[in-house]
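Project standup — Tuesday

K.O.: blocked on the structure for the chain from last sprint. Re-posting the sequence here as requested.
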Amino acid sequence: MPELAQRRAAATVEVTVQEDPRALRPRVRGAQQSSGLIMVRAQADTLTDAGGVRTRVRTPVLLLVRTDGATARTRTAWLRLLPSTRLRMRAEMMPPAGDRPGGQDVAAVLRAGPGPPEVMAGPTAVQRAAGELRAGLRKASDGLGEDARGLLPGLVVGDTSRLSPELDEAFRATDMTHLTAVSGANLSILLVLLIGPPGIAHLAERRGLAPRLGLPLRTTAVVAALLTLGFVVVCRPEPSVLRAAACGLITVWAIGTGRRRSLLPALAAAVLALLFYDPWLARDFGFLLSVLATGSLLTLAPRWSAGLRRRGCPGRLAEALAAAAAAQTVCAPVVVVLAAHVSLVAVPCNLLAEFAVAPATVLGFAALVAAPFGMPVAKGCAWLAGWPVEAIAEIARTGASLPGAEMSWPGSWAGALGLAVVSVVLWLVVVRLRLPGRPWLCAVGALALLVALVRPAPLVRPFTGWPPVGWRVVACDVGQGDALVLAADAGRGGGGGAVVVDAGPEPRAVDRCLRGLGVRSVPLVVLTHFHADHVAGLPGVLRGRRVGEIRTTGLAQPADQAAFVRRTAREAGVPVTAAYAGERGRNGDLRWEVVWPLPPSGTVGGNGAPGGSAAGNVGGTGSAGWGGGSEEGGAGANDASVTLLVRTGGLSVFLPGDLEPDAQQALLAQRPDLPRVDVLKVAHHGSRFQDPELLRRLRPRVALVSAGSDNPYGHPARETLGTLAAAGVLVARTDRHGELALVDRPDGTPAVVTRRGSPGADDGAPMPPVPASGQGAGAPERAGRTRRRSLPSCGGPASAAGGRRPGGGGVSRAPASLRVRRRGSRAGRGRGGRRDLRAPPATGRPRRRPRRPARPARAPALRSEPGAPPVRRPLPRPRPGRAAPVHAVRRSPRHCPSDGWRGVRGPVPGLPCGPVPGAARGPVPGGEGGAGCRRGVGCCSRWLVSGRRPRTIPSPP
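H.V.: unblocked you, prediction finished:
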């Protein structure tokens, strides 16, 4: 079978189901969201190849069933399969993922065809009974709330099929997933309920249900063993369940024979027996975590609990705190390999949830047992269990909502080793803090942990700089998608409320962005269109916030995503209405106007729009890139995007959604009075399909591009970046700079604050800029040596008034380039400081390093115009922890820099207005018209703040 899988051959396979089918979470791929996969672990019994040769095998395989286009009946038939069911299917075989020899713990992956499963033999009687018990528990919990309905079966039997994705993410963020992965805790509760505390089980004073029923000790041991085996069947033989059952059977055997119990040798014997039975368990992370957690409870927890009791901590609280801390300390290095994060709230959340787990588990098992005999009794038990289950869910959601709930960590074994070292160091520090006479150190440590979890903005902002004071617009880093936040109450920094435009592809990302900004209420949510990369994150916006209304486009395409938005809004009690051109509104300091699409009665180009939107057929020829061409498939959901013109404070922002060139041209035809704006959100994540006339009409100062890092679509396109750079637009990108914030400066110009990196000349065009006029560009510069970007020239009343220049079409090509040299950059060095090496020659000669070109110790002589004396200036040396200047030498005598460009030297008498090195900070005599130069003209510096603090870069004029 592995050989056939390598060839991706198709064959007829007979398999036996080993585990319950699981529905994988749908994934967003660009504009579409897959309906998900159904994964079934099975064992292949027979294999019939294309030649008709039938072979008997015994090989573990993984079945993948695509549900795209499948009916609800077909999907339900796959999900209701029980272990031991035999199936026959025609499937395509593929090799398993993984770089280890032999792949994962399966020999092949089988992609099943469409249609319901072909059942050859039903499940065994034992599995059928276990399935009825699990189904009865689900039915008993139907009347509970959403969280309890999905969480109660998970706590009792590990059935997470109805657990919501949001609650699942909260459990992962707080490291509480072990509660839904049935393990020793559930079995221990049942055994203690039957035989009482194991320490006195062989004494006359033993407690539990068994002595009250009059069962002798050996009969009690037999009943406990049968209960353990039934527990494995109902909860499925997962690795953690097998480990718990093995330890439980050894303990029960010791109690029944009257032998002395020793828990640590029992754990070792159970692990060895299970590995002898199934060596594949050694590679299972669930089994490893179960063994580590149990070992920590047997070794570290008793000592830590005794230490806490010696210092006055109550016994019950000391045991619970020691158990949670020990398990988290030992398991965290393994968890970080799987999740690449460290939870800072795991110990307190698990400690609080521990007091609710026991009653929820006992009542849940009571509902499980009572369901086949009396459903009203089972529903009553489930209703009682719903109270502690809801408390557990609330603990997880509250812990996950804290800004410092989790911290990123390298997800590798090297990262695990580093975390283990950090844990040991912290343990030594805690031991030191426990010394008498230093309680204030403990208080300081607790206060520091509280600040790290809550992260109040007044205390954190001086260190992180985020969120910036007075932010107006924020582009959230949500990957390959759009999510913008517009402050509706600038006086409170957006904390009083904000308008959200699009929600991105994933709820967790947009929720994290809004929490970082302190947004607690959202009076308006605008979903430009129903593509998944704009609407799939809507639950994250609605989570824990007051939302007023949702405005969307009138074209309900794709239909599944439109239905998802309506369903999500209905569950949250938020109204949904369509937005059309001409509508205006105001939210606090924010004013907005809808400029597209047209109302249903409007037409564009003589053709009405289907689906109640004028964007169905916008006509026009389209354009590929900014310079012309054609674009296929542009009409549709993208062309129906709700387009907003927003004014907040002194800034004007244009948000076109994903408008394609046809719709952009139609918009310009309908709105010839479209004003100039300060900020442009580049349409469709910066794709190459843009209308150049839109850029000429808007003439923005700053362009925001929201795209995912290393996305497969090539967004943003190099042509688009080059054209923006040629137009003198400062480009800020979420894929390079993280979250982007726009701050309104007193002079009315926007300043860009980024989470990481610095938007500048190298973000506009990694290739030569493409001029808007269609003229050729210069030769590309060498990486790491010099970067170029073109800025629009200025001068004259027309430019100052914001009008068009004669013959320039609104955006003129810059008469000269802006040469930017970064201190410390060297020719031949690529990103990250690594040297670019030539590819090895085909002759097999050894690879040679390229010769590093000579670099002058001082900057070259510069002349502003013929006749001006040369000025040599040494480049300043950056110092650690200080801003590193980037020298920008202007060669255009008529170029007008903005106020953000600072002169760094005194005046040079007799020099005209322009980019002369050494210009004064104030007016310099001799400028055009006798008015002199504005502040900052001359040899200027852009200050790029180094380190992890945000970069504030003023926009070009």
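K.O.: great, moving the ticket to review. The first strand starts at residue 10 and ends at 17. The longest helix spans residues 375-401.
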